[in-house]
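Hi support team,

I'm opening this ticket because the web form for multi-chain structure prediction keeps timing out on my end. I have pasted the exact lines I submitted so you can reproduce it. The total is 354 residues across two entries, so I didn't expect it to be a heavy job. Is there a limit I'm missing, or should I split the entries? Thanks in advance, R.K.
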Amino acid sequence: MDITKFVELSLGRWSSQRSAHHLAFRHFEQVTSTIDIVPLSVDHAEVINLCQSYQVDPQLTAHPFRMSWAGESDWDDTEKFEGTTILVPVPAPDNPQMGRLLRDQGYAETIPSIGHYHFTEDGFFVLLTEYERAMAEERIWFMNPNFRLRVSLIKTSQGSGVVTASFSSEIRSLSED
Amino acid sequence: MDITKFVELSLGRWSSQRSAHHLAFRHFEQVTSTIDIVPLSVDHAEVINLCQSYQVDPQLTAHPFRMSWAGESDWDDTEKFEGTTILVPVPAPDNPQMGRLLRDQGYAETIPSIGHYHFTEDGFFVLLTEYERAMAEERIWFMNPNFRLRVSLIKTSQGSGVVTASFSSEIRSLSED
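Hello R.K., no limit was hit. The queue was backed up. Here is the completed structure from your submission:
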């Protein structure tokens, strides 16, 4: 697995079930959403802007994409949520199994972030991101081209305690309208 | 990571939050439980019995243990559940990173099972078990000695479709009374 294959597999529309475990309260949160992942060209204006904000040479990027989501959570029954973010992989020049991931908006905090990713021997994408007040660790893997799983952990910024552990099962949606 | 270290880390009492995604119905199930894992001696009568039923030489086993659980699910509000099972690792003679796991009762079906386990380079315990009408794939990993995660997939016996994907976050409980 490498970033090219990973992004190619990820493109499309996904129907997601996500469970979050808020560990301090033993609370369960249930989220259903639709996720769209579409490719962007490396010279897309927003990709160039994001590179510039991190002082990254746009020539070093590969397979930028936009991820959008819309769904609802049982945490707040009355409100649907939606969002969109741009993600720009920057593979390490000397190692195709790792690199950085620029993002114009994070999961844990709604600010830009830069994460470090690598692939494990069994094809897991692992992304580590440090925020000002938290750390995020995410693992994504494909059971088959139409089914992927994702485990996300939000830890304290010291990395000692896990605050939230969440799990997504994502099924490719054949209709993309 | 090997089976000795893995079983040692697993011993004790765990407070578990589990979310099951029943994919065909997009149904969420929430389970809270307490799990106790206690070591057994290799010459414990039930361990010997289990070995004999699989025609495994008891001399080949390592670190057998008993796992018990008690909890409740929102699938059926009125009923608490509990159970217990004996697990007997049989490390491969030529490779400490893999082996078989005998169990006197499975998760997916309440019959004895024999699974095959291995450890990945990043310390994940992976267990594959074939049942008569289903396959189970389980991954367990430790974030630290007091926090472990578990992803379990139940697949059709052909292995093509995932029926249920579940996720457990397990926190070591300091009181063992």
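A quick check on our side: The interface with chain A takes residues 15, 17, 19, 21, 23, 26, 28, 30, 32, 120-122, 143-144, 147, 149, 151, 153, 160, 162, 165, 167, 169, 171 of chain B (CB under 8 Å). Let us know if the file doesn't open in your viewer.
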